[in-house]
Design a protein that fits this description.
single chain; alpha/beta; five-stranded mixed β-sheet; 32 helices; about 50% helix
Length: about 775
């Protein structure tokens, strides 16, 4: 069992309680009102200007509040747009806060929103068409049919995932960046059409830089007022110092560690002013904040304990019940040397002390200090589902082979859940389509038709195949077609977003945008990749293995009989279903025969994706990631029964995980199976989550076993791993007494969350997984 939580300072303990209680949850309508009024006032102006002015309006309208004793100004919307099954309140908050993205006044029917707001939103919808609606209007019928049955999900529009170049803000400050934008604008030729376009872009950046600086000044003025009325001399001094930080934080380079964290904290609501901010990340915090940290320690301005308290305040400032504001620590530096440092360890200490979700990634390589890896593994044992671990020795060469400069490949960081990017040098397109391999095999087995609706959605062909190779070739033809359609739909979304929903805040802190005079979503970044997702790897591998074995090798059942059983959802054919479940190999049990199928289908997907560049000439990066809530609530319910024994509409296996309950040979076997996938092609990222019982990692011996498990997986070529340490009885107790278990965290897929925040169906999914841990 984990040790008792270390004693927090009274300040941090109080802030932790407030965070857990959602203290100071902002009015979600505040942003909605500001955006609608701004858009109405700027209808005749270019979209880039409208977006920048909307951001300024939101920041000006925000009601500023500060928690008692907090050392960092700025607040974050605790509940934002999320995945199905998590925080149902997000749905109405999203509709109220983000009318420019996805207005839906019907969701506001029973929400605590004023009738005036709903009436205004309904009228505003008649004057404004969102970027999603514009993209959907361009979707061809064949794509719409395929998406309706969830052969894939697509859209190419990304409103949340972002990782700005934090160093630009900390090392240069907004004033210098604004001056550069003005200088570049002054050199443009007003008679050239492209220069006219660039002028609009630079004007949008200047508006954003001004809004950021003004936001810092607003906070400074409020804090100065609070300091003037503060009776406690120590707290008055803190408030005065915070006011000075906010005055400088957005405008000038950061002078101290505290000031640097303040700048990062203010960037959170600024990002949410532009888009949902739902998966904004901080990149390699322990690298770019290290000079400030070391300088403060050397000058005596800061003790290590004070620095840790500041990091704890920062982590709590990021807190949500679910968290995918990724922060990366450890790993190789751009010069190829190990970057692990004292700040890396301090971040882990803060996680250990707070024991709340903090989306931290630990990068690992052959020279990672053993004591740091043990420290990270010890935090995993707390049951937070974090940190997750990344293998530099796979990811770095994979990115280099994909066309990224070596220095940039060495500087990679996860964003959001597990999506890979180069901090502040890429656009934010990390979550494109999601192709459903299990559905594609279903369509193949039924002659091109959806088994649930009977609709022709694929290539029509005879449903019987004389050989396994013939069936497999037909499946590959269907898959290739759906991948092409998904990419084409993505590209339509890319083009619409570039024109209709530019991102001036992200552009303002992305390398290449100032230089090129283009928005980050319009090819302005240094790199222009797009991550694209994959669902159902284990399901399709297990299904193909079952068909190959029972139908074609053993000839124990005819393909037509199997197809009839699948169409009937195994009604009256339970013995066959049990045979499919238990008498054929399953991915996740260290069986090379089925593992090879999984690896081959992943490789095929990656090869197909590589055929299609982005409109700016970038690459589509395969992302081996399928999110659990979508599987439970969306993708699974649209997928018919499958030859692995799965019932119709049941959840699919997520990402590269074995189907839960099928990996019966222990953790090491599961790791061996997953490691047979060639992750050198997974340049968009990957997610692999393993569940361990607390008794398996108890004590010194258990910790060393956990470290050995990580090293073994990475030594075989594994890319990423997240670890849940839970037991069913804990989860059942949390269901019975949710008010007493707000602290209990689980790794759902790409992020950790409070178990009690999940809807009942997702809670049961997590519990079902916990029954099979070893």
């Amino acid at each position: 069992m984990p040790d008792a939580a270390p004693q927090l300072s009274p300040r941090v303990a109080r802030l932790r309680e407030l965070a857990l209680a959602y203290a100071n949850e902002p009015d979600p309508c505040e942003r909605g009102w500001a955006v609608m009024r701004s858009y109405d006032a700027t209808r005749a102006e270019p979209m880039a200007i409208r977006r920048a002015k909307a951001v300024a309006a939101v920041l000006e309208a925000e009601t500023l509040t500060l928690d008692e004793g907090d050392l960092l100004a700025g607040r974050v919307r605790r509940l934002i747009a999320s995945h199905p099954g998590i925080h149902e309140g997000c749905r109405w908050r999203n509709a109220a806060a983000y009318p420019d993205i996805s207005p839906n006044p019907h969701i506001l029917k029973d929400a605590p929103v004023s009738p005036e707001f709903v009436e205004h939103l309904e009228g505003w919808m008649t004057r404004h068409v969102t970027v999603h609606e514009k993209a959907r209007a361009l979707t061809p019928p064949e794509v719409r049919r395929a998406m309706n049955v969830l052969a894939f999900r697509s859209g190419g529009i990304d409103m949340g995932h972002r990782l700005p170049r934090c160093q630009m803000l900390l090392e240069r400050g907004v004033a210098a960046l604004r001056a550069e934008a003005l200088e570049r604008m002054s050199q443009l030729d007003p008679t050239r059409a492209d220069d006219v376009r660039k002028r609009v872009f630079y004007q949008s950046l200047v508006l954003v830089y001004d809004a950021m600086a003004a936001y810092g000044r607003r906070w400074a003025e409020m804090l100065q007022g609070m300091a003037a009325g503060e009776g406690d001399a120590e707290r008055r001094g803190e408030l005065e110092q915070m006011a000075a930080h906010c005055e400088r934080a957005m405008a000038q380079p950061a002078a101290t560690f505290w000031e640097g964290l303040q700048a990062l904290t203010l960037m959170l609501p600024i990002a949410q002013a532009e888009t949902t901010g739902s998966a904004g990340s901080f990149g390699r915090l322990d690298q770019y904040m290290l000079p400030l940290y070391e300088a403060d320690l050397a000058a005596g301005r800061l003790t290590r304990e004070q620095a840790r308290e500041l990091v704890e305040c920062f982590f709590l400032k990021c807190y949500r019940t679910f968290d995918f504001h990724h922060t990366t620590i450890g790993g190789l530096r751009p010069d190829g040397r190990d970057g692990t440092n004292d700040l890396s360890s301090l971040c882990l200490e803060a996680m250990d002390r707070l024991r709340t979700p903090r989306d931290v990634a630990v990068r690992v390589h052959g020279a990672t200090p053993p004591e740091f890896l043990r420290q990270a593994a010890a935090v995993v044992r707390l049951g937070l589902g974090r940190p997750d671990f990344w293998n530099d020795e796979v990811m770095v060469p994979a990115l280099f082979a994909a066309g990224f400069d070596m220095e940039d490949a060495l500087d990679y960081a996860p964003i959001g859940c597990v999506e890979i990017t180069i901090p502040g040098k890429c656009n934010s397109r990390t979550m494109g389509h999601a192709v459903n391999l299990a559905k594609i095999l279903e369509i193949t087995l039924h002659g091109g038709r959806c088994a649930l609706t009977g609709e022709l959605v694929g290539i029509e062909h005879p449903a019987d195949f004389a050989t396994y190779d013939a069936l497999h070739a037909a499946y590959r033809r269907q898959a290739a077609r759906f991948i092409r359609l998904a990419i084409e739909e993505d590209v339509r979304g890319y083009v619409v977003q570039a024109a209709e929903h530019p991102l001036p805040v992200l552009s303002a802190l992305t390398v290449g945008c100032l230089e090129s005079g283009r928005d980050v979503m319009d090819g302005g970044a240094m790199y222009n990749p797009a991550g694209v997702n994959l669902f159902g790897v284990a399901n399709v591998a297990d299904s193909l293995a079952a068909i190959k074995s029972l139908v074609y090798e053993q000839q124990a059942i005819a393909l037509g009989e199997l197809r009839e059983a699948l169409a009937a959802d195994f009604e009256g054919r339970e013995p066959l279903r049990q045979r499919l479940l238990h008498r054929v190999p399953k991915f996740g049990n260290d069986d090379p025969s089925v593992d090879a199928i999984a690896a081959a289908e992943v490789a095929f997907y990656c090869d197909e994706i590589a055929k299609y560049p982005t409109p700016e000439g970038g690459r589509h990066l395969p992302l081996l990631f399928g999110c659990t809530p979508a599987s439970v609530h969306h993708v699974g319910p649209k997928t018919g029964a499958s030859a692995d024994g799965r019932k119709a509409r049941a959840p699919l296996a997520t990402s590269v995980n074995p189907t839960h309950g099928r990996d019966l040979s222990g953790a090491t076997a599961a790791l061996n199976s997953v490691a047979r996938i060639d992750f050198s092609q997974a340049t968009g990222g990957a997610s692999f989550i393993i569940d361990l019982h607390p008794t398996a990692v108890d004590g010194t011996e258990g910790l060393e076993k956990l470290v050995g498990l990580l090293k073994g997986f990475f030594g075989q070529g594994g890319l990423e791993i997240g670890i849940n340490v839970v037991r069913e009885e804990q989860l059942r107790e949390a269901q019975a007494k949710p008010e007493e278990h707000g602290h209990l965290m689980v790794r759902v897929f790409g992020f950790s969350t409070q178990f009690i925040s999940l809807d009942p169906e997702l809670q049961e999914y997590v519990i079902a997984k916990s029954r099979h841990i070893h």
